[in-house]
Amino acid sequence: MSYLVNEILLRLAKALAALVLAVVLWIVLVVVAGTAPSVELALLCWLSGAAFILLVESSPI
Hints:
By secondary structure, the chain is mainly α. It contains 2 helices and no strands. The radius of gyration is 14 Å and the shape is elongated. The termini are far apart.
């Protein structure tokens, strides 16, 4: 049972890390680059953060 709880917590931590990366990317794009804030931009930032987490997780190093 504890393995299941650990797996759930790990997956939630990955989603939270992707959310943190997405917020940072969204702020950079809106404030620095001057992009118009939108829901589509927020979702694309979250997907980019999730893709980065997957790339780092599966790197051969």
